[in-house]
């Protein structure tokens, strides 16, 4: 299996089919094959109790899986005629199976919740598990709403290495689909560089806002230079990240975030922002992981933070 394909977790649910449709469009745009993966989950040890039940279950699980894979393949081919679709039926627990199938994939897509979910459940265990453990970008699709051509890509950045990876992914998506990119950065007078800390009570909030705007310009500038035809709008707002991103996502085709921010401990799969958005994002959500780094910080952020500490000491 190569690394030039898109993987979809398939389980026969409506969100799974929505993810298949989304991924088919993505695969067609990228001219990549689409791999549909279904995991036949082993039965709990106490069941089945008789040999006849064992045989029946042994045949039933793959039969269901093949039916759902055929349904998903038909949908993908109707959505994007000509896209190459591969079926992949495996035995094992869903998260482990899909993570293994997507080990070298470009991205993996999953419905927000599967057949095992209940009414009112925002995100299921498989989508959450993939966002925590897959090494490639994970796109969580909630419903079958098809994007409008003019809808932008929205990405949240925070100075972390994962935020930089999210920005690079979002730029690629905006260029691929020929849409605008909106880059959102939030800030607060309460800061946590290496420990709990706050800005001085007499801090100039206008000066803090100007510093954050400068940081965002420096993060975005290399992408502006690399893609001069891309329309990039930057938004700096004093707010909580989840609330600000939800406000901007209302009119977006895709929301992109890093898997964890600067303050999450090393080894944490998802930070609070990405975990919260997985539950409430009204549009497809891409969770992007950075290459392994010791502190998850972007060098631009380190320089920005040193400059801020120097200003505080001088004042």
Question: Helices and strands in order, then pairings?
Answer:
Elements: E1 6-9, H1 14-30, E2 34-40, H2 51-79, E3 85-91, H3 94-101, E4 107-111, H4 125-133, E5 138-141, E6 153-156, H5 161-177, E7 181-187, E8 190-191, E9 197-198, H6 205-226, E10 232-238, H7 241-249, E11 254-258, H8 272-280, E12 285-288, H9 299-314
Parallel strand pairs: 1-2, 1-4, 2-3, 4-5, 6-7, 6-11, 7-10, 11-12
Antiparallel strand pairs: 5-12, 8-9
Helix pairs in contact: 1-2, 3-4, 6-9
Characterise the protein shown here:
It is a single chain. By secondary structure, this protein is α/β, with parallel strands linked by helices. 43% of the residues lie in helices and 18% in strands. It has helices at residues 14-30, 51-79, 94-101, 125-133, 161-177, 205-226, 241-249, 272-280, 299-314, and strands at residues 6-9, 34-40, 85-91, 107-111, 138-141, 153-156, 181-187, 190-191, 197-198, 232-238, 254-258, 285-288. The protein has a 10-stranded mixed beta sheet, with helices on both faces. Residues 300-315 have a biased composition (Basic and acidic residues). This is Nucleotide-binding universal stress protein, UspA family. Residues 291-315 are annotated as: Disordered. Residues 6-142, 152-289 form the UspA domain.
């Amino acid at each position: 299996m190569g690394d030039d394909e898109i993987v979809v977790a398939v389980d026969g649910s409506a969100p799974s089919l929505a993810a298949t449709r989304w991924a088919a469009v993505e695969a067609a745009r990228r001219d990549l094959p689409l791999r549909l993966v279904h995991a036949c989950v082993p039965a709990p040890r106490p069941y089945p109790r008789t040999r006849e039940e064992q045989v029946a279950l042994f045949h039933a699980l793959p039969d269901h899986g093949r039916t759902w894979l055929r349904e998903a393949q038909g949908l993908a081919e109707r959505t994007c005629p000509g896209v190459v679709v591969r079926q992949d039926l495996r035995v094992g627990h869903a998260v482990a199976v899909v993570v293994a199938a997507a080990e070298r994939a470009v991205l993996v897509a999953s419905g927000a919740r599967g057949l095992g979910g209940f009414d009112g459940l925002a995100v299921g265990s498989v989508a959450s598990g993939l966002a925590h453990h897959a090494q490639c970008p994970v796109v969580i699709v909630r419903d079958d709403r098809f994007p409008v051509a003019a809808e932008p890509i929205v990405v949240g950045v925070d100075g972390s290495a994962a935020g930089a990876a999210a920005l690079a992914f979002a730029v690629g998506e905006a260029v691929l689909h020929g849409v605008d990119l909106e880059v959102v950065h939030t800030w607060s007078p309460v800061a946590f560089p290496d420990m709990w800390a706050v800005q001085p009570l007499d801090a100039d909030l206008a000066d803090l806002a100007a510093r954050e705007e400068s940081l965002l310009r420096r993060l975005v500038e290399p992408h502006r230079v690399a893609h001069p035809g891309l329309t990039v709008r930057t938004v700096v707002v004093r707010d909580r990240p989840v609330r600000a991103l939800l406000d901007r996502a209302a009119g977006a085709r895709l929301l992109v975030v890093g898997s964890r921010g600067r303050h999450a401990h090393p080894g944490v799969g998802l930070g609070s922002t990405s975990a919260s958005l997985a539950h409430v994002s009204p549009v497809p959500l891409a969770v992007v992981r950075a290459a392994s780094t010791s502190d998850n910080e972007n060098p631009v952020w380190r320089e920005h933070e040193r400059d801020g500490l120097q200003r505080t000491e001088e004042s």
